Amino acid sequence: MKYGFIGVGNMAQAIIQGLLKAQTVSSTDINVHSFHQAHADQVAQKMHLTAQASNEAVILASDVVFLAVPANQILDLLTHERKPLTESMPIVVSMAAGVSLTEMSAILPGLAIVRIMPNVNVALNQGFTAVVGNDQAASHATQQMLAVFQQLGTALEMPEADFTTVSALAGSSPAFAYIFIDALARAGVEAGLSKPVADQIAAQAVQGSAAAVLAGQKSPWDLVDQVCSPGGTTVAGVLALQENGFATAAIKAVEATIQKDQSNQS
């Protein structure tokens, strides 16, 4: 299977890195083009991809075409490239927030169109991706894309109505997690550790804690209780987090992300 990317921004590069890391495709079977062609050429050279001279060339050379352009350009792009898309009939995959399957299908009736909502951790095959397809994708394309992204982490078929929440909870949350890791590490630096060592300790602690949650035997709060000894140091730290609004701040961050996504759609 050959993949095409129209646009090679951060998320497109993360997906490409994940595909190559999972060894699901040869690098030369990934076609790329961008409005900023010099940038696309640099990415292609760096990752040994096939740079194409136009969007149409990407479409005609690919079985799956990823639309990795800003959301406000998606519908114009589909309109402009309608002819090659309807001639070659690839699976069209959009990662744009706020552009619905209904809007895209109105331009390309009869084509299998899939929406995905990944996060950048797909680059490490540790991502989360929500997947949903239109009626034409239901028989095969949605399952194909689920299989692809299950090799890049966790992938679930989810209702399109949930994509705004998924965007906040999965797409934006890595940034929140990085802030938490950095804050833990800076506290370690304040106490005398070097920043690289503190970063490593904090990141490993978060990674291990996430693995414990994903094991599914206990809820996150049960795991908190498991770490907290009566009258111990950890419970003192947990109380300090609560007193300073840690949980509220995390909830507000997700809510703000959802509200911003909704305002972009209006």
Automatic annotation (TrEMBL):
Q: What is its main location?
A: cytoplasm
Q: Where in the cell is it found?
A: Cytoplasm
- The answer to whether UniProt assigns keyword Amino-acid biosynthesis to this entry is yes
Identify the residues that bind NADPH: N55
Task: Please name the pathway.
Answer: Amino-acid biosynthesis; L-proline biosynthesis; L-proline from L-glutamate 5-semialdehyde: step 1/1
Pyrroline-5-carboxylate reductase catalytic N-terminal domain sequence ranges: 2-98
Q: Which reaction does it catalyse?
A: L-proline + NAD(+) = (S)-1-pyrroline-5-carboxylate + NADH + 2 H(+); L-proline + NADP(+) = (S)-1-pyrroline-5-carboxylate + NADPH + 2 H(+)
Residues annotated to bind NADP(+): I6, G7, V8, G9, N10, M11, S34
List residues of the Pyrroline-5-carboxylate reductase dimerisation domain: 160-262
Q: Name one GO cellular component term.
A: cytoplasm
Q: Name one GO biological process term.
A: L-proline biosynthetic process
Instruction: Please name the InterPro entries in this protein's record.
Output: 6-PGluconate_DH-like_C_sf, NAD(P)-bd_dom_sf, P5C_Rdtase_cat_N, P5CR-like_CS, P5CR_dimer, Pyrroline-COOH_reductase
In short, the EC number is 1.5.1.2
Keyword NADP included in the entry's annotation? yes
* Pfam families according to UniProt: F420_oxidored, P5CR_dimer
Which keywords accompany this UniProt record? Amino-acid biosynthesis, Cytoplasm, NADP, Oxidoreductase, Proline biosynthesis
Q: Please provide, alphabetically and separated by semicolons, the GO molecular function terms listed in this UniProt record.
A: pyrroline-5-carboxylate reductase activity
Q: List, alphabetically, the PANTHER family matched.
A: PYRROLINE-5-CARBOXYLATE REDUCTASE (PTHR11645), PYRROLINE-5-CARBOXYLATE REDUCTASE 3 (PTHR11645:SF0)
Physiological role? Catalyzes the reduction of 1-pyrroline-5-carboxylate (PCA) to L-proline.
Q: Which family does it belong to?
A: Belongs to the pyrroline-5-carboxylate reductase family.
| Annotated protein name in UniProt | Pyrroline-5-carboxylate reductase
Q: Which organism is it from?
A: Lactobacillus selangorensis
